[in-house]
């Protein structure tokens, strides 16, 4: 039997990706929505044939506790609202998926994990790339040392933003391109090396549009250092477009360009092109979590992984604020999570 998913926040990602993905999933389907707009609730009801009893306003989310049609709540709101809604969904007894980045502070992540544990529900991140065949191949090539030991990683995830939106409001976004895009570079560096970073050095890019980038950085570059000597050189900006992951190893290289998009990924290695069928990443991710819920097994992208990445991003900001000073990380608690 398929599990019911309710999307909280009906913005671009829900509309363009998650709603459509939930029509392709085997283990779950779109059962309900939570939105502040009555018009949007009605549009979604008509489009996905949702019963009126499964439409909620943000203020009435708690009423889901008595609705057995909703098993999983998927929080797709601006970053600073993730913590509140994950905690409220957990208290209503629902399993939760949280979009990236998990939250705007490590403390919030801790509270989210605690609330889910207390409620006895599972918490997963919306980390779709762990279910993408090209990115899974990068994990295999790196972690299994198919081209020998990895030496160096270059990752760039950037996208141009031209006009005001919540992503440019530090209070709602928790930061700029690092929080929105850079999280993919952080993830990639860890899943290719299979290691946790021990130190960070970072620098903000100069602001070319101070009118637009008032409360978040316009761009940031950082280096992640691993105990084995591997290095990842990463970049994220709102003033250019970039989307790549290049890995140099002892006996060859492998790369994705584009690397982090929903589709159209292209991969090559020093031995030739990567060939994989196109899939809808979000459908694979949702189905994996629904299967975890059915068998009461932890997600492979759990809340703890989201917290780990927020901890790394906070260290990147700390280093950039200190003008590139080396900031050390102590991530031993996350040792078995890659
Ligand atoms: P969006 O701006 O298109 O939608 C945000 C939604 O939140 C809107 O429906 C808006 O009405 C609602 N909202 C509720 N309270 C709000 C408030 N106080 N201020 C602003 N909006 C408010 O954003 P989006 O692109 O759908 O992103 C939502 C979340 O999904 C973010 O956390 C983002 O990082 C994540 N996301 C993930 C991916 C991915 O590939 N995994 C892609 C896009 C977005």
Give a written overview of the molecule.
With 338 residues, this protein is of the alpha/beta class. It folds into 2 domains: 119 residues, 3-Layer(aba) Sandwich (Rossmann fold), CATH 3.40.50.720; 184 residues, 2-Layer Sandwich (Dihydrodipicolinate Reductase, domain 2), CATH 3.30.360.10. 33% of the residues lie in helices and 23% in strands. The chain is built from 9 helices and 15 strands. The strands form 2 sheets. The protein has a 9-stranded mixed β-sheet. A 6-stranded parallel β-sheet has the order 3-2-1-4-5-6, sandwiched between helices. Helix 2 links the parallel strand 2 and strand 3. Helix 3 packs parallel to helix 4 and helix 7 crosses helix 9. The structure holds nicotinamide-adenine-dinucleotide (NAD). Nicotinamide-adenine-dinucleotide binds next to helix 1. The site of nicotinamide-adenine-dinucleotide has 19 residues, from helix 1.
Please supply descriptive tags for the structure shown above.
15 strands; Rossmann fold; 6-stranded parallel sheet; binds nicotinamide-adenine-dinucleotide; 2 domains; Dihydrodipicolinate Reductase, domain 2
């Amino acid at each position: 039997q398929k599990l019911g998913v309710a999307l909280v926040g009906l913005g671009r990602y829900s509309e363009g990706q998650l709603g459509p993905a939930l029509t392709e999933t085997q283990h779950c389907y779109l059962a309900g929505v939570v939105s502040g707009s009555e018009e949007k609730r009605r549009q979604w009801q008509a489009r996905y044939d949702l019963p009126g009893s499964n439409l909620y306003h943000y203020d009435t989310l708690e009423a889901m506790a008595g609705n057995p049609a909703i098993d999983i709540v998927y929080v797709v709101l601006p970053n600073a609202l993730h913590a509140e809604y994950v905690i409220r969904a957990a208290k209503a007894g629902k399993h939760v998926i949280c979009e990236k980045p998990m939250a705007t502070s490590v403390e919030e992540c801790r509270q989210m994990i605690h609330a889910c544990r207390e409620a006895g529900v599972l918490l997963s991140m919306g980390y779709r790339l762990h279910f993408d065949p090209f990115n899974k191949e990068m994990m295999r090539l790196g972690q299994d040392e198919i081209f020998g030991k990895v030496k160096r990683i270059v990752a760039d995830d950037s996208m141009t933003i031209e006009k005001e939106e919540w992503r440019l409001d530090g209070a709602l976004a928790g930061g700029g391109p690092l929080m929105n895009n850079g999280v993919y570079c952080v993830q990639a560096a860890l899943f290719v090396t299979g290691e946790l970073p021990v130190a960070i050095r970072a620098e903000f890019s100069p602001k070319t549009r101070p009118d637009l980038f008032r409360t978040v950085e316009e761009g940031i570059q950082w280096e992640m250092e691993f105990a084995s000597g591997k290095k990842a050189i990463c970049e994220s900006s709102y003033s250019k477009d970039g989307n790549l992951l290049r890995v140099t190893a002892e006996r060859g290289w492998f790369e994705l360009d584009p690397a982090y998009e929903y589709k159209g990924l292209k991969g090559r290695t020093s031995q030739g092109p990567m060939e994989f069928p196109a899939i809808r990443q979000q459908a694979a991710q949702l189905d994996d979590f629904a299967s975890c819920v059915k068998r009461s097994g932890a997600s492979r992208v759990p809340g703890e992984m989201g917290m780990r990445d927020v901890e790394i991003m906070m260290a990147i900001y700390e280093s950039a604020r200190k003008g590139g000073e080396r900031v050390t990380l102590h991530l031993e608690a996350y040792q078995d999570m890659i």
